[in-house]
Amino acid sequence: MRDAQQILAEANVIAVVGASRDPFKPAHTVPLQMLRHGWRIIPINPFVDEVFGVKTVPTLADLDEPVDLVNVFRPSSDAVDVVRQAVAIKAPAVWLQSGIFSAEARRIAEEAGLDYVEDRCLAVERAVGSLTKLP
């Protein structure tokens, strides 16, 4: 299993489940920071057409391309369902943001062979590792 730094370094396309248009929410600021550092972000949100200028996709099942990482900004109670969706689309890794935990989601991910991170912030890990996708 890859650690958080490896997952981020090797990811190029990140699907963000629960991406928000609210500029004061981490579900907006974190993916926006990743976008600004060169990752391709696909916001997953069935309620809006775009987030930070990027067209949204309603659900993971609606993606028409593979992703390297599914980043989750949903309550812990939704994690199991999101991880099952990530397994269904054959995502190689799932990342639950700070404050999001689920033993059941971890079990499902690990049984399916997905790399799994929980209760960690993508933007913090990016900064700690000085990671960027920019030339």
Describe the structure using short key phrases.
135 residues, alpha/beta, Rossmann fold, five-stranded parallel sheet, two-stranded antiparallel ribbon, 5 helices, 33% helix, 19% strand, globular
Structure description:
With 135 residues, the chain is α/β, with parallel strands linked by helices. It has one domain (4-115): NAD(P)-binding Rossmann-like Domain (Rossmann fold, 3-Layer(aba) Sandwich). Helices cover 33% and strands 19% of the residues. It contains 5 helices and 7 strands; from the N terminus they run αβαββββαβαβα. It has a 5-stranded parallel sheet with strand order 2-1-5-6-7, with helices on both faces. Strands 3-4 form a two-stranded antiparallel ribbon. The longest helix is centred in the first third of the chain and has 11 residues, at 26-36. It is globular, with a radius of gyration of 13 Å.
